[in-house]
């Protein structure tokens, strides 16, 4: 680390203390003592407690929570997702018409990617908000929001388990890199944001501080992963992501044991390359993982998160309801409960957006991308769940808000 960087690292926490608490919490990189090394297996029937470090000590302050977020990220990478690489060695962005080109180098590997941008209307030189669509968007999007098309299959393929290693992520990092496709997509979206930042709003039309991400189904798992692992996204809208997204591995196993036609960890690794080859070790013993998918919501917190689900058995409505309500308790402790909404409106086909959800979704676009109004307090699930069965042994949540 250069002397300048060391100085900046020392000064940051001091400078951050002067910020209002909401801004302090936005600084998710505020952990000055991140844990290092590998995490041990556990034996935990409940959802792992977000308020307790793997070491057993309590999460009591905003700085602790930033460190716990770093830990939750590492846990999901170690057991389920594979490793998230650091930014590339170099990236050069150019804009031509509506196409952004990214020349990326990692070690001796290089790749040039092109990304199509539909500029937001009326953004001026400061740029306007934009939605990154993982494989396309299946939600209504306000007219003032631009579009960025992310061709996730080209980044990391998702045809079957043997797809692992195919795509420009793997061309850059090597075919045997541990990342599953969904985490690889998060890294690739990070490069799109690098390009937007480098070129600036005057060229791209996009304000990189006003980005949302969405995707449905398999691409909804991706949208969730992008939001959880790429902190520059302001609003995350995973739609019908089900297993591996909004659903909990543990609860889906429990529902499966009750005879439900639900997607589980042991099935999903045989279907596709969404998760790391490392996950295979754990798919028949998910209660030994010191994390679960409520951690995804905890990693997005306190940023905007609007989780859309459906009542289709395969997606696990009980599993998604419990995991996402658990996620909302984290937002609540941060004093921003309504920054996360959970919308489960059933009775429609997979990835068709129910119009009953329009107003709630719009309230999230308005607050996080268009800068107006407050979000509605959204939890529309009618699934019959007993939260205490899954989070009953959690420590009392600290109050981390102002
Ligand atoms: C919900 O996402 C997936 C699901 O995980 C798969 O099991 C199924 O085959 O496809 C869903 C999907 O992506 O549908 C478009």
TrEMBL record:
It comes from Lasiosphaeris hirsuta. This is (4-O-methyl)-D-glucuronate--lignin esterase. InterPro entries: AB_hydrolase_fold, GCE-like_dom. GO terms for biological process: lignin catabolic process. One of its GO terms (molecular function) is carboxylic ester hydrolase activity. Residues 1-18 form the signal peptide. Belongs to the carbohydrate esterase 15 (CE15) family. Its EC number is 3.1.1.117. It catalyses: a 4-O-methyl-alpha-D-glucuronosyl ester derivative + H2O = 4-O-methyl-alpha-D-glucuronate derivative + an alcohol + H(+). It holds the Pfam family GCE_fung. Keywords: Hydrolase, Lignin degradation, Serine esterase, Signal. Residues 104-335 form the 4-O-methyl-glucuronoyl methylesterase-like domain.
């Amino acid at each position: 680390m250069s002397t300048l960087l060391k100085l900046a690292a020392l000064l940051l926490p001091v400078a951050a203390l002067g910020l209002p608490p909401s801004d302090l919490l936005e600084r998710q990189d505020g952990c000055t003592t991140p844990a290092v090394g590998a995490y041990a297996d556990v034996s935990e029937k409940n959802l792992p407690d977000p308020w307790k470090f793997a070491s057993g000590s309590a999460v009591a302050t905003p700085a602790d929570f930033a460190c716990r977020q770093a830990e939750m990220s590492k846990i999901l990478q170690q057991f389920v997702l594979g490793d998230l690489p650091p930014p590339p060695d170099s990236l050069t962005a150019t804009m031509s018409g509506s196409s952004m080109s990214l020349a990326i180098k990692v070690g001796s590997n290089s790749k040039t990617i092109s990304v199509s941008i539909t500029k937001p209307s009326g953004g001026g030189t400061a740029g306007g908000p934009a939605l990154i669509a993982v494989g396309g968007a299946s939600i209504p999007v306000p007219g003032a929001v631009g579009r960025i098309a992310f061709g996730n299959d080209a980044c990391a393929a998702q045809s079957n388990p043997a797809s692992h290693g195919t795509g420009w992520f793997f061309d850059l990092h090597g075919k045997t890199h541990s990342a599953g496709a969904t985490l690889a997509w998060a890294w690739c979206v990070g490069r799109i944001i690098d390009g937007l930042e480098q070129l600036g709003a005057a060229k791209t039309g996009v304000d990189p501080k006003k980005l949302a991400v969405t995707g449905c189904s398999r691409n909804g798992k991706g949208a969730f992963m992008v939001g959880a692992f790429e902190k520059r996204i302001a609003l995350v809208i995973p739609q019908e992501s089900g297993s591996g997204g909004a659903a909990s591995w543990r609860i889906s196993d429990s529902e499966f044991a009750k005879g439900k036609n639900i997607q589980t960890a042991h099935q999903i690794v045989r279907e596709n390359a969404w998760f790391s080859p490392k996950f295979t070790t754990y798919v028949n013993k998910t209660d030994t993982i010191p994390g679960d998918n409520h951690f995804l919501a905890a990693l997005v917190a306190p940023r905007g998160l609007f989780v859309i689900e459906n009542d289709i058995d395969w997606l696990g409505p009980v599993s998604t309801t419990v995991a996402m309500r658990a996620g909302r308790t984290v937002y609540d402790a941060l004093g921003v409960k309504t920054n996360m909404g959970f919308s489960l409106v059933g009775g429609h086909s997979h990835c068709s957006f129910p119009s009953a959800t329009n107003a709630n979704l719009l309230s999230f676009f308005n607050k996080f991308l268009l800068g107006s109004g407050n979000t509605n307090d959204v939890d529309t699930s009618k699934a019959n769940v007993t939260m205490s069965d899954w989070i009953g042994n959690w420590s009392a949540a600290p109050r981390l808000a102002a």
